[in-house]
Amino acid sequence: MCHVNYIQVQYLTIRAYIISFRLEREKYVTTATRLPGAEKIQLKNDIEAVRGSYVEDWSHDCTHLTVKEIALTVKVLYALIDDKPIVLPQYWTKLKDHVRSGEEFPKVENYNNPPVSGTLLSRVEWKRGINRRNMFKNKLFIFLTENNKQIMEGVIARLGGTSIAWEKKPMPLQDIEKSPKQIIVVQPLEKTQNSSFQELVELVSKRGQRLIPQQEIALAVVSGNCEKDCNPEFDRASEVFCNVSKCAPSQSTVLAQNTEDQAYSQDLCNVKKEKPDIVIRATYSPENNTTVSTYYLV
């Protein structure tokens, strides 16, 4: 007789679950515009408390722009172009309180809607979260002087456009006429005796186009399009923004370079000098031989 022994084999399956954690430190880099000295010092203290950095100039490293109110400054334009949050100083104070005391983490959306300063700015649709990168593609901006060009050339370049200073690099008029790019001649800030530039202005006029005040470049960035602002084909005179004779809104809008001081306008034609470093200049209009006051910060 033959006996068969059966051996029962049991298999035990062991599954290992590996849980991984990744710890990342939030990066905070901000600059500010139009902040008074005391508030700027407070901002620096708050940002240092959360291991962040304060920088004087806008760069691609900036994660936020800090303002008390929104105005047409170059830093604001850069923040819009890079689609970065524009926050109130209180955001950093609340963030510091969260780090030190464990208070509720502040939501950026509760602090990224600062008031808009200036009468005209309040009338412009302030658009965020849109792609502005190619707004000025195939556009050539012609400024009279190098100093005028330097204020806006960085903004223009980021939006895909190019710019030249006529006094430094004039172009033959036939090249202007044949250029595949849209030519935008920026209205000079002063009366000029430059004969070749005057010929350029006459060419623009014969085309039925207009010179573009420098502030319209900024307004186009704010609105996110060139339908009206920064459009030489658009008849600006047909839209009345001001009841004062010979006062165009685009010529009295405040445009500031990177600075903490700004002129406040009570209306489109009344801008007062507030700080000693505000340079008041004038925009000369070759079309009607008149001078219109324009206020700049440099």
One letter per element, helices H and strands E, the order comes to EHEEHEHHEHEHEHHHEEEEE
Ends apart, CA distance between termini: 111 Å
Q: How much of the sequence is in beta strands? A: 15-25%
By CATH, the superfamily of the largest domain comes out as Nibrin, BRCT2 domain
Largest sheet: 4 strands, parallel
Q: Mean pLDDT across all residues, rounded?
A: 80
Total beta strands: 12
**Radius of gyration in whole Å, from Cα?**
27 Å
Assembly form of the protein: single chain
CATH architectural designation of the largest domain: 3-Layer(aba) Sandwich
How does the overall form come out from the CA principal axes?
elongated
Descriptive notes:
The protein has 9 helices and 12 strands. The strands form 4 sheets. Strands 2-1-3-4 form a 4-stranded parallel sheet, with helices on both faces. It has a 3-stranded parallel sheet with strand order 6-5-7, sandwiched between helices. The protein is 28% helix and 16% strand. β3, α2 and β4 (86-87) form a beta-alpha-beta unit.
Which terms would index this structure?
Rossmann fold; 3-stranded parallel sheet; 9 helices; alpha/beta; disordered C terminus; 298 residues; 12 strands
